[in-house]
Amino acid sequence: MIRLESLTKVFDTPKGAVVAADHIDMEVPEGEICILLGPSGCGKTTTLKMINRIVKPTSGKVFINGEDTTGLDTQTLRRNIGYVIQQIGLFPNMTIEENITIVPKLLGWDKAKYKARAREMMAMIALEPDAFLKRFPSELSGGQQQRIGVARALAADPPVMLMDEPFGAIDPINRAVIQDEFLKMQQELNKTIMFVSHDIDEAIKMGDRVAVFREGKLVQYSTPDDLLAAPKNAFVESFLGEDRALKRLNLVKVREIVTDEIGTVTPSDTLETALAKIDDYGYQNAILMINERKQPAGIISRSLARTTKGYCRDHFQAVPAVVDLDDDLRKAASLMFAHDQTWLPCVDKAGTVCGQITQRAMTSHLGARYRARQGDDRKPSAAIKE
Amino acid sequence: MPIRSIKGALKALVLFAIFFAGVWSQSSGVIDEFLWYLPDVQYLMVQHIWLTVMSGSLAILVAIPLGIVLSRPKMANVAESLMQVLNVGTTIPTLAVLALSMSFLGIGTVPAVFGLFVATLLPITRNTYAGLKGVNPALMEAAAGIGMSPMQRLLKVELPNALYVIFAGMRTALTINVGTVPLAFLIGAGGLGELIFTGIDLYDPVMMLSGAIPTALLAITIDALIAIIAFLVVPRGVNPSRA
Amino acid sequence: MELLQYALDNASLLLSRTIEHIALVGVAVGIATLTGVPIGIAITKNERVAQNVLYLASIIVTIPSIALFGIMIPVLSLIGHGIGYVPAVIAVLLYSQLPIIRNTYTAINNVNPALREAARGIGMSPNQRLRLVEIPLAVPIIMAGVRTAVVLNIGVMAIAAYIGAGGLGTFISRGISQSDSRQLIVGAIAVSLLAIIVDYALLYLQKRLTPKGMSRQAATP
């Protein structure tokens, strides 16, 4: 748990005093990732760096797991906080092993223990220990280097981690991979993490909570879904972008808005039955045909059912697309647009049809939050992300 | 500010020291002894400066074009190995350069100027080459891309951007040159070295200092002079001392 | 051929003068390293002091060696060491300060700020930062400064033969005064070779001392 109490930083510059962080109060519950978000110069990095005193606070307090850190010796404090920076900062004169084990060494672990820890860390970041431990940072790619950077920060198993745009210097494709890996690690590690980013998409993807900063002030602190659904003011709204509703699609899973009720036909039904069902269910264009294992097998279009006689098995068309219950709405929407559909069948892990998702359900789900904009307490996004 | 006050105290101390040194030297007659050498100093200083100007300007006239030619892409093969040779050359002590020059050309002004010329040539060539090679390739590509001819690129892009480094080379080289001229006396070319070496041989401190102090001042002056020229000549945008 | 003969005839003298030359330069630059490196590190703490120290050191280097000898002899003769190896060693000490202090200062100052922040962030004390990160990264550049100092001062020491400091310059000074071109050339070649060989030897040492992980990048900070 990290708690900031009225944390303030005033820089004395030749042009006068500049308040980089103005009485920041916030709390990150244990095991959550909190993203500090905002344009450059908004105070997010200053706030982060005051926690491990890379920037010395002018006033205010930092609590870690309930303990006031003000009295702690700076080096002890830092050794118990994992720290990852954008420029990675691996020591080029040390091997990967020496880089990873530096904090345990500073803390006085014995050799066998820190050597074993290095191998453990390598396994965690999915790099082969024998291939990498004896190499030097300059021999690794940027993505590999930042994995080592994360491993170094985690080596002494600190309860708290600070990350300053950790994946900002990595190319987009590798960044997505490393973000996913990190989230997976976090599920097991349950660290309390403060994470600076200027990328809204990263904030939404990585954060359990997002803190938006502007000109040294904490403007809004909420879950990503709340942030997107109910930006507090015009600044947050413009910072999130005009397409913020679309960004929310990332946060909602198909499972949440699927309707169990779906009309289907089987291959042995006649087209006449199919047409009747289409009208019964009020479908406009077509109905899904499933096989004996209840898997999607094809669709029967309304126009065809109306003009032709025969059995479904002789007149179906290929299923344009299906979505999984665990897919997010962004994928669902994308598939709908790509295939010019207003609904898609949903399948579970086994591939059996278990409902449908419609454009209307999606829009009404997203719209509901905007209509109910004034604070009902929603379930936290941690639950959404599972 | 404590640093200020320490500085002030130091300044006062230095002034006192100079004052008492002046009083002492006046009373002991040292000043008269120095004045006795004044005509010699004047004559030898002119000779000294002339040696520097001769050898230095010759060296600049050869070294800069040489550096430019070597930095052309066509010369790439030859240039690298030649720069290796020049690098080795710069490690050779100047006394050895003069001694070798004397053993081939004999005694007098000609071997002295030649020796000084060689010692000055190397650092300037090296810096000209390094300066031109160090110009950001993106600039060169941009220059080519907007249709500059190779000559235009050299004059409008490469040289202005390399100028600071070239001047740094001239500064080093000419300071070395001025400092080496006293050695030219040893091979019969005159200069302020005459007072220093003769002073050492005769163990005459006043004579030694009459040669040594002007030599030191001359070196510091030429160093500062070229620094000032560089400050004024190198375009502001690529001049670190004016940033 | 004549030269070679002369060199062979005087091989033992040549060797002892070479050793003398190396010893004088080595001791002086060795002491200079012991003073220059700490000074170089210390002045990274204060930009203004650093500029003044570097300025002073650069003025000293500007003073021609023979002029420096000429100034030092009257002063040192007050303590009875006007000529001989003492002024020579002092001159080498002074000349070595600039390359060593400047390179140390630049190297420590130019250590990537990200590394410094990472070192602070993981809880290294200032001393640990210096010992584990900054100095190891600075070593190649400090060594380059030492190398510059040594090569420069091999030349200075040659001139110091004129103030009775010994070394290979003696061959040159005798060669000139006795108009003996064999001595002159052998001396000049010997001192040149010494400078070149020592330069390469120190370059090799510099590469050996470069931390392994950095050898791929150029030895620049």
TrEMBL record, chain A:
Membrane topology: Peripheral membrane protein
Gene3D superfamilies the record matches: CBS-domain, P-loop containing nucleotide triphosphate hydrolases
A single Gene Ontology CC term: plasma membrane
Main location: membrane
The keyword Transmembrane helix is annotated on this UniProt entry: no
Any one GO MF annotation of this record: ABC-type quaternary ammonium compound transporting activity
GO process annotations (BP): amino acid transport; glycine betaine transport
Catalytic activity: a quaternary ammonium(out) + ATP + H2O = a quaternary ammonium(in) + ADP + phosphate + H(+)
Enzyme Commission code: 7.6.2.9
SMART domains reported for this sequence: AAA
PROSITE patterns: ABC_TRANSPORTER_1, ABC_TRANSPORTER_2
InterPro entries xrefs: AAA+_ATPase, ABC_transporter-like_ATP-bd, ABC_transporter-like_CS, CBS_dom, CBS_dom_sf, Gly-betaine_transp_ATP-bd, P-loop_NTPase
Cellular location(s): Cell inner membrane
Domain ABC transporter: 2-240
Record keywords: ATP-binding, Cell inner membrane, Cell membrane, Membrane, Nucleotide-binding, Repeat, Transport
Quaternary structure annotation from Swiss-Prot or TrEMBL: The complex is probably composed of two ATP-binding proteins, two transmembrane proteins and a solute-binding protein.
Family statement drawn from the similarity comment of this UniProt entry: Belongs to the ABC transporter superfamily.
Name of the protein described by the UniProt record: Quaternary amine transport ATP-binding protein
TrEMBL record, chain B:
Keywords assigned by UniProt, alphabetized: Membrane, Transmembrane, Transmembrane helix, Transport
A Gene Ontology term for the protein's cellular component: plasma membrane
Pfam families for the chain: BPD_transp_1
Family listed: Belongs to the binding-protein-dependent transport system permease family.
Intracellular or extracellular location(s): Cell membrane
Regions that span the bilayer: 49-70, 82-100, 106-124, 162-187, 207-234
Domain ABC transmembrane type-1, chain residue ranges per copy: 45-230
Main localization (coarse): membrane
Protein name according to UniProt: ABC transporter permease
Biological classification of the source: Bacteria, Pseudomonadati, Pseudomonadota, Gammaproteobacteria, Oceanospirillales
Membrane-related topology note: Multi-pass membrane protein
Coiled coil: none
UniProt record, GO biological process: glycine betaine transport; transmembrane transport
UniProtKB/TrEMBL annotation, chain C:
InterPro entries, sorted: ABC_transp_perm/SBD, MetI-like, MetI-like_sf
Residue intervals of the ABC transmembrane type-1 domain: 18-204
Keyword NAD listed: no
A cellular component annotation (GO) from this entry: plasma membrane
Spans traversing the lipid bilayer: 22-41, 53-72, 78-95, 137-164, 184-205
CDD domains membership: TM_PBP2
Biological processes annotated in GO: glycine betaine transport; transmembrane transport
PANTHER family: GLYCINE BETAINE/L-PROLINE TRANSPORT SYSTEM PERMEASE PROTEIN PROW, OSMOPROTECTANT IMPORT PERMEASE PROTEIN OSMW
Listed name of the protein: ABC transporter permease
